[in-house]
């Protein structure tokens, strides 16, 4: 599996870097075959200095790389005797120019290296060569105007979204719940009845199942609202995949479930859990659930593992409809 290729457009930078390294490796062999002492990365320096002396700042602008990168490249060319550094008219700056040896290397590169590399690239790209180069130019221009991180900040796509139940998500509903229940407890008959038949047990009974989807990860969490038959509504079978912990998907999902429950109008709205689920209990408390002995007495026998019963009161921390 090629992770970079399979990563799609989000891995474009890594893919272009890898592509550049492969092309540079081939160009290096062509340069070596031509008997030149330089590397492909030096060609832009030689071209920028063709007939002109430039300051480091001017080379940064001409080549489009950082000042440390320019300084490093110039140092390498100076060691090879291909460029020289002289005091400029402005005493605070030095100018870089080609030595006669450097000019001779540039001339040989123009004849023996650059045409061969260009021919090879055109063979790779075929009739789309000019279109591809135009796209690269457009990409460079756009990034120069607005860096990638600023563009990302403008993206309106939410990281987390809520999805309603559909039968194609039944497997996700079961798998997510089996994962967390099996990690700490054992599946009870009451669990299996709901997980094996979510539509019949919850949807057709007037309840709701919601899912939280994380961009790039897919469905990462789920939770259900199940009418009790006596006017009550149970928050049940809520879990988040272990691989998605830290995304606050659970809090996002719980806020959506509370909002949906409030619209349904049942009373009491409650949940049954276990003290071993400490992180979940803390989240329930944060969003408005309170421990309630009456709920325990009324519904607690439903699960063997139940030793915590909570009833929803209210919470100022909920942000309804965010990102939905």
Automatic annotation (TrEMBL):
Question: Which Pfam family, any one, appears in the UniProt record?
Answer: Acetyltransf_1
Q: Enumerate the Gene Ontology biological process terms.
A: response to stress
InterPro entries per UniProt: Acyl_CoA_acyltransferase, ArsR-like_HTH, GNAT_dom, HTH_MarR-typ, MarR/SlyA-like, WH-like_DNA-bd_sf, WH_DNA-bd_sf
Annotated ranges, domain N-acetyltransferase: 160-309
Mind telling me which SMART domains this protein's record contains? HTH_MARR
**What is the superkingdom listed in this entry's lineage?**
Bacteria
Q: Which GO terms describe its molecular function?
A: acyltransferase activity, transferring groups other than amino-acyl groups; DNA-binding transcription factor activity
Q: Where are the transmembrane segments?
A: none
- Listed name of the protein: Bifunctional helix-turn-helix transcriptional regulator/GNAT family N-acetyltransferase
Q: Which organism is it from?
A: Sphingomonas lycopersici
Q: What is the lineage of its organism?
A: Bacteria, Pseudomonadati, Pseudomonadota, Alphaproteobacteria, Sphingomonadales
């Amino acid at each position: 599996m090629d992770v970079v290729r399979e990563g799609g457009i989000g891995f474009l930078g890594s893919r272009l870097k890898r592509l550049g390294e492969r092309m540079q490796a081939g160009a290096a062999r062509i340069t070596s075959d031509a008997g030149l002492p330089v590397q492909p990365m030096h060609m832009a320096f030689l071209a920028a200095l063709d007939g002109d002396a430039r300051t480091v700042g001017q080379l940064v602008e001409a080549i489009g790389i950082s000042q440390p990168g320019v300084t490093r490249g110039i140092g390498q060319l100076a060691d090879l005797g291909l460029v020289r550094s002289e005091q400029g008219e402005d005493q605070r700056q030095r100018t870089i120019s080609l030595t006669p040896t450097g000019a001779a290397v540039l001339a040989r590169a123009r004849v023996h290296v650059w045409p061969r590399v260009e021919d090879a690239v055109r063979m790779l790209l075929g009739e789309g060569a000019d279109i591809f180069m135009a796209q690269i130019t457009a990409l460079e221009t756009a990034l120069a105007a607005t860096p990638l991180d600023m563009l990302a900040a403008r993206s309106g796509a939410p990281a987390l979204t809520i999805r309603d139940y559909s039968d194609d998500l039944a497997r996700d509903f079961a798998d997510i719940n089996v994962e967390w229940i099996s990690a700490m407890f054992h599946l009870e008959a009451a669990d299996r009845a709901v997980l094996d038949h979510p539509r019949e047990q919850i949807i057709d009974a007037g309840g709701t199942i919601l899912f939280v989807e994380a961009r790039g990860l897919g469905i990462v969490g789920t939770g259900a609202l199940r009418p009790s038959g006596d006017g009550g509504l149970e928050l049940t079978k809520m879990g988040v995949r272990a691989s998605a912990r830290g995304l606050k998907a659970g809090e996002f999902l719980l806020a959506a479930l509370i909002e949906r429950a409030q619209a349904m109008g049942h009373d009491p709205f409650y949940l049954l859990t276990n003290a071993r689920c400490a992180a979940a209990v803390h989240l329930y408390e944060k969003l408005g659930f309170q421990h309630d002995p009456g709920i325990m007495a009324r519904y607690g026998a439903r699960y063997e593992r139940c030793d915590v019963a909570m009833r929803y009161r209210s919470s100022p921390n909920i942000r309804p409809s965010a990102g939905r």
